Amino acid sequence: MYTTVNEDGILNNYAAEPKMYYADYPAIWEQRKYVIQGVFAALMVTTLVLVSFSVS
C-alpha cells in the first residue's frame, strides 16, 4: 500500500493499482450474441412502455 504524510502528520493511504491490460476485440459469435441481447432488451423496453401507456 502506498502511504504519504502531509505537513500536519495525517496519513493518506492509496490502494495498489491493478496491472492494466488491453481488451481483446470480440469475436464474430460474441458480436452476434451482443446484437441478440440488444434486440431482446429493446423489445422488453418497448413492451414495458406500451403496457404502461395501456394501463394509464
Features:
two-stranded antiparallel sheet, alpha+beta, 56 residues, single chain
Strand content: 5-15%
- Assembly type of the shown chains? single chain
N/C terminus separation: 56 Å
Computed over alpha carbons, the radius of gyration is 24 Å
Structural class: alpha+beta
The ordered H/E elements are EEH
Strand order in the sheet with the most strands: 1-2
Tell me, briefly, the overall form: elongated
Mean pLDDT rating? 91
What is the count of DSSP helices, taking H or I runs of 4+ residues?
Answer: 1
Explain this structure:
- The chain has 56 residues and is an alpha+beta fold.
- Helix content is 50%, strand content 14%.
- It is built from one helix and two strands.
- A hairpin with a 5-residue loop joins strand 1 (2-5) and strand 2.
- The mean pLDDT is 91.
